[in-house]
């Protein structure tokens, strides 16, 4: 397919996503099935166009002064791909499979309009109803922060230290263009271009043997800040597919007791194979069975309870850009209730002197600092570990990380703009030795 034909396909797909209100990934999969003549390179390029349009949905429409699939695709080419009106005009020549030629209005918009007068939610590409929430945490920086949250994300890997070292993996994966992550001492990063194909990590020998896992650097850091130690009893309360469970197991060096559970047993399904591949032998996976409490035998005896809390996922917009446009205010209310439930459950599990590591992939203060304040008010036996004390686990990177991340009295907030990671909030709480 020519670049112009790919552009036409992207316009068609955006129209389908709008009309049928389907997730972009589903629309792309169905399009690929129906257009088998399109090669893997074509599908990757079209997917790149679609994700970039979704990243810049509001600002692209503003630039073009029109909110149609075609307008958003053309506006994205200017804003995200940095093409000028002449280059865009060349793609839209009306030839076979190419988009129709630019109208005078489109050509004028591409040449003259900018985001200088755009409202914050348009310039930052996020739903208008979230503006007050983002202003609360970022103030006048919210457009810059949200713009970074709309950028393309790299592919990050975590080296499984039960089986390998980063020093060993760097030459072994050199063909993928890996480089050390800036903060995590066990991370590798692959920068991906707009039209890049999936590098096929799951087919790599090092992945198959369990030496590496796909995990954003922010998620790696969140696990590291929990400071899980060998010999401890650690509970991963919202384990899901097991990404942070695997990270905790490596930190514990196979020593101690690791328990992984989740209220949704369907989420736990992949964890068994992942634990086996990673060489983890000290993890007890507890799948919910009816109304019985899977942790009924744990009575205030855990050294660490890690909560990878259910949240709105606002910190992961750059990996799932259509999610932000489908998000509704009611989703936040539901998540806040879920977080209260899981925090209160964790309080009963931590032993005197034990810790709770509360993690969200959200940047919204209601899910982060405000949730922690409310928890401490309900459970005065817990106090927040000063954030500056938790970063000591990063050794020589601690000072630089502290300068980059956003610190509050309740914990650390990482963002794409500040730390180059997904958006993660981490708070560590400690239970008093005596009531």
Number of strand segments:
13
Q: Give the helix level as a range of percent.
A: 40-55%
- Rg for CA atoms: 23 Å
Shape: globular
**Mean pLDDT, as a whole number?**
94
Percent of residues in β-strands: 5-15%
Query: What does the largest sheet look like?
Result: 9 strands, mixed
What structural class is derived from the secondary structure elements? alpha/beta
**First CA to last CA: what distance?**
69 Å
Q: Uncertain regions: pLDDT < 50 for 5+ in a row?
A: none
- How many separate helices? 21
Oligomer: single chain
Tell me what you see in this structure.
It is a single chain. The protein has 435 residues and is of the alpha/beta class. Helices cover 43% and strands 14% of the residues. It has 21 helices and 13 strands. It has helices at 3-20, 24-34, 40-55, 57-64, 69-79, 85-91, 104-112, 120-123, 131-138, 142-149, 166-172, 205-208, 217-225, 243-251, 271-278, 321-326, 329-349, 369-378, 387-390, 398-404, 416-419; strands at residues 155-159, 179-180, 187-190, 212-214, 233-236, 257-261, 283-286, 302-308, 350-360, 382-384, 406-407, 412-414, 424-431. Strands 5, 6, 7, 8, 9, 10, 11, 12 and 13 form a 9-stranded mixed sheet that branches. Strands 2-3-1-4 form a 4-stranded antiparallel sheet. Helix 1 packs across helix 3 (40-55). The protein is globular.
């Amino acid at each position: 397919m020519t670049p112009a034909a790919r552009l036409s396909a992207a316009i068609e797909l955006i129209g389908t996503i709008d009309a049928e209100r389907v997730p972009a990934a589903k629309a792309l999969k169905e399009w690929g099935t129906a257009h088998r003549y399109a090669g893997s390179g074509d599908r990757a390029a079209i997917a790149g166009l679609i994700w970039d349009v979704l990243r810049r949905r509001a600002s692209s429409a503003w630039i073009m002064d029109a909110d149609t699939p075609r307008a958003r695709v053309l506006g994205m080419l200017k804003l995200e791909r940095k093409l000028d009106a002449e280059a865009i005009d060349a793609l839209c020549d009306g030839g076979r499979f190419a988009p129709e030629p630019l109208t005078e209005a489109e050509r004028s918009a591409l040449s003259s309009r900018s985001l200088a007068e755009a409202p914050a939610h348009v310039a930052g590409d996020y739903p208008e109803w979230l503006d007050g929430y983002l202003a609360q945490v970022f103030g006048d920086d919210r457009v810059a922060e949200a713009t970074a949250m709309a950028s393309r994300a790299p592919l990050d890997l975590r080296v499984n230290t039960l089986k390998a070292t980063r020093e060993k993996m760097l030459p072994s994966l050199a063909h993928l263009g890996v480089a050390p992550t800036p903060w995590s001492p066990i991370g590798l990063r692959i920068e991906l271009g707009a039209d890049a194909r999936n590098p096929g990590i799951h087919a790599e020998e090092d992945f198959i043997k369990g030496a590496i896992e796909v995990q954003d650097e922010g998620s790696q850091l969140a696990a590291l800040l929990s400071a899980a130690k060998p010999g401890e009893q650690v509970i991963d309360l919202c384990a899901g597919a097991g990404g942070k469970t695997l990270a905790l197991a490596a930190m514990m060096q196979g020593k101690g007791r690791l328990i992984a559970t989740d209220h949704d047993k369907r989420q736990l399904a992949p964890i068994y194979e992942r634990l086996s591949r990673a060489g983890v032998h000290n993890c007890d996976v507890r799948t919910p069975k009816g109304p019985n409490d899977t942790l009924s035998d744990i009575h205030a005896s855990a050294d660490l309870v890690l909560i990878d809390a259910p949240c709105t996922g606002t910190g992961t917009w750059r990996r799932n850009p259509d999610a932000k446009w489908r998000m509704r205010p009611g989703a936040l209310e539901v998540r806040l209730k879920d977080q209260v439930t899981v925090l209160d459950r964790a309080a009963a599990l931590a032993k005197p002197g034990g810790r709770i590591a509360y993690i969200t992939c959200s940047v919204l203060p209601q899910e982060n600092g405000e949730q922690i304040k409310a928890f401490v008010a309900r459970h005065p036996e817990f106090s927040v570990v000063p954030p500056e004390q938790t970063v000591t686990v990063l050794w020589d990177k601690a000072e630089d990380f502290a300068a980059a991340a956003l610190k509050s009295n309740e914990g650390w907030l990482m963002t794409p703009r500040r730390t180059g990671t997904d958006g993660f909030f981490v708070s560590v709480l400690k239970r008093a030795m005596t009531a």
